Amino acid sequence: MADAVAAYLDHLRTARGAAGSTLASYRRDLRRYRAFLAGHGVHDLTAVTPALLAGLVPALQAGDGDHPALGEASVARTLVAVRGLHRWARAEGLTAGDPAADPAAPLRAPVLARRAPRSLTVADVEAILGAAGAPGTLLARRDRTLLEVLATTGARISETVGLDLADVDLDGRTVRLRGPGGRDRVVPLPAWATATLRSYLAEVRPVLAHQATAVFVNARGGRLSRQSAWTVLARAAERAGVSEHVSPHTLRHSFAAHLVEAGVDVREVQALLGHASTATTQRYASEQGPDQRPDQAAGR
């Protein structure tokens, strides 16, 4: 079964153009699925039955000694991966049927609620930016720049750490973000974030970097990883006293909610976020956001 999963992931990468972060999520979710099957003595896709799959959702929600219980969003994401794997296996002739599509395998239930994404207030975002790193250090200046780019562009974390020097236009005050599926977009930076980025590139990065192209580098000079960037944000939020869970996607959600609240057309927000569908962006329209846009905060 491991070979089938590997082949499916390769299919997603080569035929579907899936981003690295998407592939990592699918790999993690399908590892959890394989553990579920192994616990029932099943090690081949041909042996999976609808009756067995009927127990998947409860198992994911309950967790076990080796795996934490999953929330509804994580369960939904895992089910997408499982359904995709079985659909692909049938299309490739690896299995005679698709047990995940059988009504006896309720992988489309329960219906998971689609909640509007949670957003931070402008004051919270400002507090997080101000709490980035130990004051005065090179890494603190890098961290502040990283978080300003995240907060003012609505970029995904993978897009931000993936920025190369050639993607930055300081004079034009824009950055090119490389989205999933090869969908690139150019987004503007406010003047204050551009000034921070200019200072970082001129004074901080040359001291840290041995990596020739990456904008954001780690203490050893290589490209900053997604995990490290996530840690930068988590520590800044903790120091700022922002009690609710904060992730890079929280900043992305906040960016979008602030724009919608300020009256920016949803289609323009869609273009800035790189959403393939307007329906995804429309969820932000129902949020009650703050009365300032991020680039208007704190008198900037």
TrEMBL record:
Which keywords label this protein?
Answer: DNA integration, DNA recombination, DNA-binding
Q: Gene3D superfamilies annotated for this entry?
A: 1.10.150.130, Intergrase catalytic core
The signal peptide stretch is: none
GO MF, one annotated term = DNA binding
UniProt domain Core-binding (CB): residue ranges: 1-90
Q: Which PANTHER family match?
A: PHAGE INTEGRASE-RELATED, TYROSINE RECOMBINASE XERC
Give the species this sequence originates from: Nocardioides zeae
Spell out the residue ranges making up region: Disordered.
Answer: 280-300
Q: Which residues form the Tyr recombinase domain?
A: 115-299
GO biological process terms, semicolon-separated: DNA integration; DNA recombination
Keyword Ribonucleoprotein included in the entry's annotation? no
Q: What is this protein called?
A: Integrase/recombinase XerD
